[in-house]
Amino acid sequence: MSREKRFKNTFAPWVENKWLTVEMLIGMVKIGFPWEKMPHDAQIAILEAMR
Question: Rounded to 10 degrees, what is the CA torsion of 8, 14, 16, 19?
């Protein structure tokens, strides 16, 4: 059984979720969250998911 990768939310205090999935991160970027504020490992996961 594979688990979806999750990221601890330490960079978006306005988001109530403590853990964020790749899909949630993609949505945040689409609505204008600054790419440069996204953690590096989250950026890599987003790029891999969008291939």
Answer: -10
